[in-house]
Specification:
92 residues, TIM Barrel, 2 strands, 9% strand
Length: 92
């Protein structure tokens, strides 16, 4: 609410899953309909669509796109492929 008072309308929502998840963000829509969120923290390929289906969610962040093993292996092609798959799966 402090950010709202300073004119901000876009917010990161972290840690999303342990703070109520998509249900919490859906509930935020009624009292602050102009706010938009980027939830991170516990977002996975399996629950990202739950968030992205909400009108007050503009994007999600998830470490599934950059797994530690792929980073350590410097497998940039593997990371690009995960990003491509996510973009294809969740493109509106």
């Amino acid at each position: 609410m402090t950010g709202w008072q300073y004119g901000y309308r876009r917010f990161k929502f972290f840690p999303a899953e342990s703070s109520g998840g998509a249900k919490a963000l859906k509930a935020f829509g009624a009292p602050i309909p102009g706010a938009r969120f980027c939830p991170t923290g516990g977002i996975t390929v399996d629950n990202a669509a739950d968030y992205l289906s909400l009108p007050n969610v503009m994007c999600v962040g998830g470490s599934w796109l950059t797994p530690k093993a792929l980073i350590e292996a410097e497998d940039w092609d593997g990371i690009r492929e995960l990003a491509r798959q996510a973009a294809e799966r969740f493109h509106h």
